[in-house]
Amino acid sequence: MASSSQSALLPLDSMTLRPVEPRDFAAIATLSTAAMMEDDLIDYICPYRHKHPESLRQYFLRSVKQRYYSVDEHALAVEVPDADDTSQKGSSRMKLVGHAAWRRDGDGEKAQVWRKKGSWADTARTLQIPMSLNAVFERQALRLTNHYISIFHLDRSVSRSRLAEADALKDHFSDVLERWHLTFLVVHPDFQRRGVGGCLVEWGTENAKKEGIPATILGSQVGQSMYRKKGFKDYKLSWLKEGVHAMAMIYIPEGTTITEIDTRALELQML
Could you tell me the pTM of the whole model? Predict the structure, then answer.
């Protein structure tokens, strides 16, 4: 059980929100495994994860790389001073405690601009590698790796039939042409309910506000209450089995003039 100090909200100035870098991949994979080992959706999709935890970690490692090298996604990390580290006199190293990825959907001018701001693009510029070449190579390598793993069933933590069910969950807002969509969010177990997840969510909702477009998520049972506190509204449940579901949720910035959002979103705005 977490102590009262562990459950207290972190001061905003103690959290650093930044783009993910390749050096974060291993830490995010380990963090994701620890945080989601008992998640309701992971419990259903990966029933063999306790017997094969490294397979689950490798899945999360491939996933964070895919998010990082995606043209449309923006991978974020939250870090705080590591209170357990005293290797540096008078200071401590930073500890990565949260990770999320937001995807900018749409073909409008602003969407095109965001596609040039991905984390991988910054790395490519630093290394003086042509951005398209760098991203294409990494995405192709990941695609081949995932194909190989799928064919030979090398991820021993997962149920392939259940994974197919989860992948088939409908995107209820696919006709919302311009939007921000939260594709992934995870927080270290010791830092949950302390403001880290909210910080990652607000990155997307603030950008949605600036652009006057909605933000959407498919929220797990664990995270739905936080999303509601951040202004998201329920739309529709997607069931995997009795007791296991995800909720399609939408955030519409106050005062937004709805032009490309369908009538269902208009109804939600009026709730």
Answer: 0.86
